[in-house]
Structure prediction request, 258 residues.
Amino acid sequence: MERKILLLCSLVLAFAAPVAHAQAQAAPAATNKSTANPIDPASIQALKDMGAYLQTLKRFRVQNELTAERVLADGQKLQHSATADIEVARPNKLRVVMVTPQSERELFYDGKMVTLFRPVEKYYSSAEFTDTLGGLATRLQEKFGVELPLADLFLWGTPAAPLDKIESAMNAGQAFVGNDLCDHYAFREGTIDWQIWITAGSKPLPRKIVIANRSDEARPQSVSVIKWNLNQSFPDSVFTFTPPAGSAKIEMVPVKAK
Prediction:
């Protein structure tokens, strides 16, 4: 049973941009200000504007194509891919389908109950919960060690996304992501370097995010390409989990405190 619990809660598609909750250790303070990259106020304002716009979106669908690198003991990198299909109804409804070549996982949250489900094995685990989507993302991570894909979509534009941890910020110009012209920004926080491409114009949506881990000398990266549907129509019933015939409920176990 313990192995089943670990399999259920080990959501390998976890992805979170570092703006809201980067967990890398802070880099040592620069002793020579001339060597530190500057913080461009306009780049910080772009994050604020994006966050404010994201908070206005009430019902939408977002698809994430994630490519991530794993570094072997000898330094060789392996690249892996995953997808996440996310349906959202603010302030407190969410459904996520997460797929890798090895597995499929689903998450349901209807504002009262959160459920993790593995369709192939038909294992599911549920817990009562009442909070916003930002609160859900934080709680799942802190209590159960489960990260929502693109969790920061629900934290940008709120006090839970502090910008004072950013050590450098720059505008890197413009580029296309798909057919969308985007403003490209680069940031550094502690041992994390990250870039974001935000749609230019009146609807500043994040379209691509690249994160590099500087605490590993191999600098492994993850790349998310994000597609949006702001005119999505779906019933609230999609957020409520109904156990399929033959499914088995198992316990959702909190992570042990370090």
User: Anything to note?
Assistant: The radius of gyration is 19 Å. The longest strand covers residues 59-71. The chain is about 15% helix and 40% strand. Confidence is low (pLDDT under 50) at residues 1-35.
